[in-house]
């Protein structure tokens, strides 16, 4: 079985590692990085509209040992993000969620920081914990009313 993010030999896959850069570009990795350096400095502008969403998916992507980007998305687009220098901490998730109006559902991976912040800031919001890779590529979360809404 191949684990997510790793090759069969156990080596970790990276989006822009030496092998991936060699396959997709005729340049060396350092030349590729130097030519695309300005693109990494572009920060997206996601306006906070105040719209109430049926479901928001919250997750974190680690860029280094402690630096992470906390992301709030709907099935169609990104809603908000927050740069975290301390990882997945309660105060970092609070900074992310305090920008948004409460939604009907929160879908997350079950991190204790997310759960405690949702309980404190949005007490009426239902939290669904989604186990990663539990249902393959298509993920469905069943609403309490019985009608499913499709996430991907």
Written description of the protein model:
This protein has 152 residues and is α/β, with parallel strands linked by helices. The chain has 2 domains: 1-42, no CATH class; 55-150, 2-Layer Sandwich (Nucleotidyltransferase, domain 5), CATH 3.30.420. Helices cover 24% and strands 23% of the residues. It contains 5 helices and 7 strands, in the order αααβββαβαβββ. It has helices at 18-24, 29-35, 37-40, 90-97, 112-121; strands at residues 55-62, 68-73, 78-84, 105-108, 126-129, 140-142, 148-150. It has a 5-stranded mixed beta sheet with strand order 3-2-1-4-5, covered by helices on one side. α4 packs across α5 (112-121). It starts with 17 loop residues before the first helix and ends with a strand. Residues 133-139 and 141-152 have low confidence and may be disordered.
